[in-house]
C-alpha cells in the first residue's frame, strides 16, 4: 500500500509480483521452503479484491499448497463475522490455493518487458501529478482527509509525521479520502497514460494487451480490479465536491484529473473488450446499481457538511492562513469560545455517519 502511494498501484502490483518471483527463485537455488505472508486490506490499493482471483494471479511457484494471510481489521467482520461467512471465506482460500498449484501460469518474457515499459510510464505520470505544487492543497480542500485525521474514527494516527506532505500520510487515509469523493484516484492514476503511450507507439499492442487480459491471470486481475473501481466511481460527484469546497484557482486541477479519469476508463474498457464496466460480472454490477441511490445522497450531505465545518474552521495551509474554501470566512465566535477548535454540535456526527455510509456503499474502503 505504501508502494502504491509512492509509484501508483500498477507499478506497486508489478513490483510485488517480480519481488515474489525472485524470492522463490533464490529459495529454490538454496533448497529453502518459503511461505509468503500476505496482508489483505479492504481497498484495491491495499491488497483488497476477490480472494479467488487474487490468489490465482500470484507468480508461478509462490503458492505451493500453502499460503499465509493476515486480514486487515476493517474487513474481518465482512469475511469472518458469521459462521457461514467464515466457512465460505475459508473455502475460497482453499479452492484457490489448490487451483493455482494444479494450473500454474508462467509469464512470458515479452509480456514482462511490456509491463516494465508501462510501469515506467505510469510511475512517471503518477509522481508528476503528486509533485504538482497545487496537488496537496487540492487534496486537502476537495476531500475529507483533514477532518478524518482530527476525528476518533481510525485505529492509528492518519500521519506518521507532522508535516503536510503526501509521503507522511498513512496509506489508509490516502485511499479512504479519495474513495469518499468517488474519484478513487490512487487506483487508476498513471494507468491511462501508460496504456496510451504503448498503444500510440504501436497500435498492434492493443491486441497484445487483450491477449494478456484473457490469458495472464495477473494482468486480468489488475485490470478487472481497476474496472471495478470505475464502476463504483462517479466524476459528477467529485465535481460537486470541487464546486462546494475548492477555490477557483485549484478547480482547474480537478478538471484535469477528471479528464484523466475518463480517458483511463475508456482505454481500460478497450483493452478488456468491454462496452461498459463490469460486463463480465453482472452480479456485482447489479449490486452496485442497487446501492447507488442510497450512496449518492450521503455524498451530497457530506460535501455540504464539510462546507459548513470549514466555514467555522477553515483549512490551514503550510505557512499561511489561506482560505481554500473561497468563503472568505476566518474564525467565528464559536471557535473563539472553543479553543480546541471543536466543530459545531452535530456536524462531526453527521460527517462520521456519511463516511460510514459511503464506505459501506463502496465496499472497498480503508
TrEMBL record:
One of its GO terms (biological process) is carbon fixation. Pfam families: PEPcase. SUPFAM superfamilies: Phosphoenolpyruvate/pyruvate domain. Keywords: Lyase, Pyruvate. GO terms for molecular function: phosphoenolpyruvate carboxylase activity. It is an enzyme of class 4 (lyase). Its EC number is 4.1.1.31. It comes from the Eukaryota. InterPro entries: PEP_COase, Pyrv/PenolPyrv_kinase-like_dom. GO terms for cellular component: cytosol. This is Phosphoenolpyruvate carboxylase. The lineage of its organism: Eukaryota, Viridiplantae, Streptophyta, Charophyceae, Charales.
Amino acid at each position: 500500500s505504501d508502494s502504491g502511494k509512492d509509484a501508483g498501484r500498477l507499478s506497486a502490483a508489478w513490483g510485488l509480483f517480480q519481488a515474489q518471483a525472485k524470492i522463490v527463485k533464490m529459495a529454490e537455488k538454496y533448497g529453502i521452503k518459503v511461505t509468503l505472508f500476505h496482508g489483505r486490506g479492504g481497498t484495491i490499493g491495499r491488497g483488497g479484491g476477490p480472494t479467488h482471483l487474487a490468489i490465482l494471479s500470484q507468480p508461478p511457484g509462490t503458492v505451493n499448497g500453502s499460503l499465509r494471510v493476515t486480514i486487515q481489521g476493517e474487513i474481518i467482520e465482512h469475511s469472518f463475522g458469521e459462521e457461514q461467512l467464515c466457512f465460505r471465506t475459508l473455502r475460497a482460500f482453499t479452492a484457490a490455493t489448490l487451483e493455482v498449484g494444479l494450473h500454474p501460469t508462467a509469464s512470458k518474457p515479452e509480456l514482462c518487458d511490456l509491463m516494465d515499459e508501462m510501469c515506467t510510464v505510469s510511475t512517471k505520470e503518477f509522481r508528476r501529478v503528486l509533485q504538482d505544487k497545487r496537488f496537496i492543497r487540492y487534496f486537502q480542500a476537495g476531500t475529507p482527509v483533514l477532518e478524518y485525521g482530527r476525528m476518533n474514527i481510525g485505529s492509528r494516527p492518519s500521519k506518521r509525521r507532522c508535516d503536510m506532505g503526501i509521503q507522511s500520510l498513512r496509506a489508509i487515509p490516502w485511499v479512504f479520502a479519495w474513495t469518499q469523493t468517488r474519484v478513487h484516484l490512487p487506483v487508476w492514476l498513471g494507468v491511462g497514460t501508460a496504456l496510451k503511450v504503448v498503444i500510440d507507439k504501436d497500435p498492434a499492442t492493443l491486441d497484445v494487451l487483450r491477449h494478456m487480459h484473457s490469458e495472464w491471470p495477473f494482468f486480468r486481475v489488475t485490470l478487472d480490479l481497476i474496472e471495478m473501481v470505475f464502476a463504483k466511481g462517479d466524476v459528477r460527484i467529485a465535481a460537486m465536491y470541487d464546486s462546494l469546497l475548492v477555490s477557483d484557482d485549484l478547480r482547474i486541477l480537478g478538471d484535469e484529473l477528471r479528464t484523466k479519469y475518463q480517458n483511463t476508463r475508456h482505454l481500460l474498457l478497450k483493452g478488456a473488450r468491454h462496452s461498459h464496466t463490469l460486463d463480465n460480472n453482472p452480479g456485482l454490477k447489479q449490486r452496485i446499481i442497487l446501492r447507488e441511490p442510497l450512496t449518492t445522497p450521503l455524498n451530497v450531505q457530506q460535501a455540504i457538511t464539510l462546507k459548513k465545518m470549514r466555514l467555522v474552521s477553515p483549512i490551514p495551509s503550510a505557512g499561511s492562513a489561506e482560505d481554500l474554501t473561497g468563503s472568505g470566512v476566518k474564525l467565528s465566535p464559536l471557535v473563539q469560545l472553543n479553543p480546541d477548535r471543536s466543530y459545531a454540535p452535530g456536524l462531526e456526527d453527521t460527517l462520521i455517519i456519511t463516511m460510514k455510509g459511503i464506505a459501506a456503499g463502496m465496499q472497498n474502503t480503508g
